[in-house]
Amino acid sequence: MMHIETLKKHFGYTSFRDGQETLINSILSGSDTLGIMPTGAGKSICFQIPGLMFSGVTLVISPLISLMKDQVNALTQSGISAAFINSSLTDGQITKALQNAARGMYKLIYIAPERLLTGDFLAFAKSVDIAMLTVDEAHCISQWGQDFRPSYTAIPEFISKLSKRPIVSAFTATATPQVKEDIVMQLKLNNPVVTISGFDRPNLYFDVKRIKGDKFSALEAFLQNRESQSGIVYCATRGNVEEVCDKLRQRGFSTSRYHAGLSDSERHENQDDFLHDRVQIMVATNAFGMGIDKSNVSFVVHYNMPMNLEGYYQEAGRAGRDGEPATCLLLYGRSDVSTAMWMIENQETEEFLKERNIKRLQEMDAYCTTSECLRGYILKYFGETPPENCEEKCINCETDFEVVDITTDVQKIISCVARMKERFGVKMILDTLRGKTNAKVTSFGLDKLSTFGISKKSSDELREVIDYLVLSDYLHKTTDKFPIIKLGQRAKEALSQNAKITMKIGKIVVTSRVAQNQMIDSTLLEKLKSVRLEIAKEQKLPAFVIFHDSTLADMCKKLPITLEGFLKVSGVGQSKAEKYGEKFLSVISEFEKAKGIFSTV
Ligand code: ADP
Question: Fewest CB atoms within 10 Å of the CB: 143, 255, 455, 501?
Answer without folding.
Answer: 143
